[in-house]
Every structure is written in C-alpha cells, then in structure tokens.
Amino acid sequence: MxxxxxxxxxxxxxxxxxxxxxxxxxxxxxxFLHGEEVDAGVIVLSTRGCAWALRGGCTMCGYVYDSSRGxxxxxVLQQFKEGLAKVGEVAYLKVFNSGSFxxxxxxxxxTRLKIFxxxxxxxxxxxxxxxxxxxxxxxxxxxxxSVLEPELEVGIGLETTNDYIREVCINKGFTLAEFxxxxxxxxxxxxxxxxxLLIKPxxxxxxxxxxxxxxxxxxxxxxxxxxxxxNPLNVQRGTLVEELFNKREYRPPWLWSVVEIxxxxxxxxxxxxxxxxxxxxxxxxxxxxxxxxSRVLAAIRRFSSxxxxxxxEELTCTCKxxxxxxxxxxxxxx
Length: 334
Ligand code: SF4
Ligand SMILES: [Zn+2]
Prior knowledge:
Blueprint: H1 3-17, E1 25-33, E2 36-44, H2 51-54, H3 73-87, E3 92-96, H4 109-120, E4 126-130, H5 138-147, E5 151-159, H6 163-168, H7 176-189, E6 192-199, H8 206-223, E7 227-232, H9 240-246, H10 255-268, E8 273-275, H11 293-306, H12 310-313, H13 319-333
Helix pairs in contact: 3-4, 5-7, 8-10, 10-11
C-alpha cells in the first residue's frame, strides 16, 4: 500500500476516535531576536485544522485532533485576544495555528487583518506566523506587510531539504522547489523566513537523521532562510509514527543527537538556530537515559535563547557512550 493511503486510513479512523479539547493555548518563553535574548509569547489558535492533515497529512503530526471543527472566525479572534492577555508584554510574538495562517479556511482575511491591527497596538518587534508554501502569495504578503507595523516572519515546515525523505518518510506533500518559490515571494515582500526542520523522521536510522538534519540546516541557510528551528520528533496520537512506536519500530531521537546537530549547524551558519523540543525527556519525545534529560534539555533551551555554544559544548553523562554505540550499531545492521 502507498504511504499516502496508509496515512489517510489512520487519519480517518483517528478523526472519528479522538476528540480534541479544541482549546487554544498561550505561554511566555525566552527567544533570541536582533542579537539578544528577549521575552517571547506564543499563542496557539485552535482553528478548523490543517487542510493537509484533514486529507491524511504528515506521518508524525497529530495536531489536527486538537482543532475545533466548526470554529467560527469570531471564536478564533476571541482566542487570540485571550492569548494576548495571557502572554502580556513581549518583544517577539508567535501566533501559531498548527496549520497555515494564510489558509483562509482556517483564518479568514478579515480575521487576519484584525489580528494585525491588534498586534500594531502592542509595540512588539516581530510577529511570527506559520504556513505551508501553497498559501504564501505575493498578494497576501504585500497586504500583510502594508497593514502590519512590526516585522513579519513566516515559519515554513520544510522538515528536510531532501525531497525523497520529505515525501517518502514524512508525506509532506510539497517539494523543495515549492518551498523555494514561497521563500522567494517572502523575500521580495520583505518578509523574514524561518525553516522548521524535523529531527528523525520515521524509516531512517538515528545516524542518517543526524546527517540529514545537519545537511538540511546548512542548505536552508545557504538558500537565504533567516532562522532555523529544529523540531525533534515527538510521538503524537493518531499518527503513523505512533503505530510504528507501538510496534517498537520507532524510537524518538536521543537528546545527544539534538545537541550534535545544533552544534554542528551553528558552527557552519551565521543565522539563529533554535530548538525547543516538545515532549522531551519522556518516552514519546527526544530523550536520553532519564538521569541527564532535564540538564541537557535546559542547556538546549539556554543555547536557543542566547545562541552561545558554551551551554551545549561541555555536556556529559554515562549514557553518551551508549548513544555513540547505538549510532554505529544501527548503521552496521542495515
Ligand atoms: S506538520 Fe504541518 S503540514 Fe503537516 S499535517 Fe501537521 S500542521 Fe499540517
Ligand atoms: Zn544520560
């Protein structure tokens, strides 16, 4: 069976079984902007969900189960306002919807413009949204930039610069050429771009995942992307990856792999490299031996918000040797 039909089948079954809360979320965190550590706010809106996910979608993504099917635009705007009240004063505001900010099925043009007007009143330095490439058009971006006062940054889930891995392991549904087109549109509209890169998609070894993530980061930076954000895979409910995980055919990445990737990439690129692994330190997220996880995770977070390599350079634990052995063993077994 083709990967796409397997994913579709898992999705339609899980959409019946899993009823998400449909609740939005908002929190404060630290990030790196304009050469310094700043306060950032994240608001996750619960819209009707990513259109690609509703048609099957990516092998690791279960965000669609948290969407609010039937959410009205008034509700989406209300969530945004409540989110703003929760995050308070920040320099860097990130508005996510686990889908595409520019998909009018999720966030209408009217709501988008109202959100921009609210943002203008806040005095933030940068607003970040996220979108698949197909919704990024010159028209939409030019209008956005003309209304919005702070800088606009669009995050795109490129995941890898390798088309084969993106298609065969992730079922992402777009090519590097489509990403590049969207990137060019952003560039000519004066919009900044952030590439999300996935650490350890299914069907490749840990060692291959490290090489893919390093190569992808360096290549994306060479294309001109202004920020790299690494997402170590976490096993989400109702996904193909969860089925593999339950059969013990998938292990989320080691935190040592995450450290190795961001270190090697940061040494080669001059743009910010950030990583805030969700679900890390648990069996379903990126993890080490259990004893060093919180220490390594805290170091990755410190690195992300300061861009100072010293936080991740001296990390050690007895499990580091086991990680190295497993890397070699996995390659040997293939
Ligand atoms: S990873 Fe992004 S594009 Fe893929 S299904 Fe999830 S929200 Fe949609
Ligand atoms: Zn350890």
